[in-house]
C-alpha cells in the first residue's frame, strides 16, 4: 500500500475510482485501494431508468443502502418497499436483496458495506434461483 493511501483521510472527486458494472456506474469512495480501511466500504451507484441489480447476497458483509435521488424498488428478502430520497434499507449479512430503478430519472444511492476486509465470495448471484427468479417477473 502506498504512503498516499495509507495516510489519506480525505477523498476528492478526482481520487474516487469509477467502474462501470453490469448494473450501474459505480463511484468508489472508500475501499482498500483508495484509503487504508478495515471496516467500511462505500460506493455511490448511478442506475439508469429501467436497470436493476437483481437478487444477490453478500455472505460476508452487511449493507446499508441510502437513496440520494430517484426511486428504487428495494427488496430485502421477500419484503419490498419503494424508496425515495432520504430513505434507507438495511441488509443483514447473507440476506438476499435486489434494487430496481422504477423511476424515470437516474437512481443515485450510496451502498455502505462492512467489514471491508472479508472472506470471499463478496457477492453471490441468486437471480436464477427460486423463489427469486419468480418473485419479480418482468
**Binned strand content:** 35-45%
N-to-C CA distance: 45 Å
The main sheet orders its strands as 1-2-3-10-5-8
Mean pLDDT: 95
Q: Structural class of the helices, strands and pairings?
A: mainly beta
The portion of residues assigned to helices is under 10%
Low-confidence segments, ≥5 residues, pLDDT <50? none
**N-to-C order of helices and strands:** HEEEEEEEEEEEH
Q: Radius of gyration, rounded?
A: 15 Å
Global morphology: globular
Secondary structure tally, helices: 2
Q: How is the main sheet built?
A: 6 strands, antiparallel
Give the tally of β-strands. 11
Secondary structure blueprint with pairings:
Elements: H1 3-6, E1 17-20, E2 25-30, E3 41-47, E4 52-57, E5 62-69, E6 72-76, E7 79-83, E8 88-91, E9 97-101, E10 107-114, E11 124-125, H2 132-135
Antiparallel strand pairs: 1-2, 2-3, 3-10, 4-9, 4-11, 5-8, 5-10, 6-7, 6-9
Pfam families: Cupin_2
Keywords: Metal-binding
Protein name: Cupin domain-containing protein
